[in-house]
Design goal:
The chain has a two-stranded antiparallel sheet with strand order 1-2. The two termini are 17 Å apart. The chain has one domain. By secondary structure, the chain is mainly alpha-helical.
Length: 85
Amino acid sequence: MHQDKRTAYWRANLRLVAFCLGIWFVCSYGFGVLFVEQLNSIRVGGFRLGFWFAQQGSIYVFVLLIFFYAWRMNRIDRQYDVHED
């Protein structure tokens, strides 16, 4: 693989990682800590939404991000022809 293609592949990977970390930060720290008072006015299943995000929601989002990252990296790998056969 040429150096330009390697650099582009690495940049695509870093963009994806930054995107996933940004979502994870907003859901875990933002919804669970910073915006907890505003979200607690909303109830889901009898629980306040801010409390739910702090206890369960950020974990669910993290697991979904793992699957999204794997799916997206497979597409990026095929795009740059570094996929496994």
